[in-house]
Sequence to fold (486 residues):
Amino acid sequence: MELIEIFNAFAMIVLGSFIGMLFGSIPGLGAALTIVLLLPITYFMSPLAAILLLLSAYQSAEYGGSISALTLGIPGTPAAAATVIDGFEYAKNTSPGKAISFSLMASSIGGISGSLLLIFLSKPLTVLALKMSAPEYFLVGTLGLFAIATLASKDIIKSAISAILGLLTATIGMDLFTGAHRFTFDRVELLEGVNMIVLIVGVFGISEIFNIINDGFANKQVTTKEMLKSKITFKEFKGVSKHIGLGSIIGSLVGAFPGTGAGTASFFSYSLGKKISKSTPEYGKGNPEGIVAPEAANNATVGGSLLPLLTLGIPGSATIAIIMGAFVIHGIQPGPKVFETNTVLVNGIIWGFLIAAIVIFFIGKLLTPFFARILIVPNKFLVPLLLVISTMGVYANNKLFFDIWVALGLGMLAILCKKLDYSLPAFVLAFILSPIIEENFRRALSMSSGNYTIFFSSIFSKVLILSIIILIFFGIKSTLKNRKQY
Fold:
């Protein structure tokens, strides 16, 4: 590989990291739209530079989503929805600088973990992914639903109701199997269902704007110079290191299975992190563990989702499917043979991807002081800006004014749910998991001609069922313990 090509590749990594961070931080835009906008300019680049530009933008956008989640309470990407639960509270009440630094540190380590997965575990995980089919994917989704119990409000019944509402909301649209219209009310705009971006911005963004207006535009928290400092001590890092490791592992593994996505991984990590934490009562009030676990996970999924593309030619996520376009543009067919026919290119992608995770850390570190100052802006100036950005993000997704009204309605419902102590995280996670559960359940029954024993047929199925039983047991035990305390 020539020196000039290495320099160009590195330059594209830096450029992609900056653009991804910027677009990811704007609610409603996110990684997929960033890649779509960058894809046309890759026609004029070398294959390595083009692919690394897109991959670094994808990786950086996943981190960028946490910036608005932490400073504004509005997730920039669906995967940052788990981060906002503790991150926004920590930023407001403790330190916006440290909140962003925790996220940046976890995202970088998660990205590096995803890169190492590509380097060392590509073949074993590919074999595992191939052995999993519709029954196993259904059980993975079901496992996530039962894990919602750990995201519950004080009332586990309300958390379950929130999850059911999330599942029902996800059924809106055209049935993929029969073509039937479900709960569309004869609106063409709802044929594709409620868009994920619309739901996230509505539930977290619009509701937060209404809350600020309801409080009379008053900045409740006084942000001092001390709060703007972003340096994390070794003791603070050590305190969250277990959760960074947990998020990195879960994100890498979840990303390797096509269709699961960063949103699923981040909520899984948050949920399991809360379960193993020694400071569980602090969750939801600004626990840094609740920042690092989902952030490490959503960045680790990027490397994981690239794995099936390189080894099998199957994109692991919608965004990776767009990046696959760059391969095709340059006449490269991803899959098992790419390691033999384009060895230099594949090695360049893998090692360049690792460098991108490191570059993101330094760019983020440079911009952290600027991001941290967003909370200083008076709410009377911030609210109009938030409203414009949120509206733009919702509209840019499908170019539909109807989506803006849906986001507005969801925002008002979210305020009501908060007041009644229903679980918004449970609602969002159920919405994310619903397509995985429904589609794979129906596909599995179609494969077995209606025989339910297909869900018990493989060793993976049995392990997942056992995990669900264990979750139910601990959920009941925790509920009974809480009732005794009150």
Summary: The chain has a mean pLDDT of 80. The longest strand covers residues 173-174.
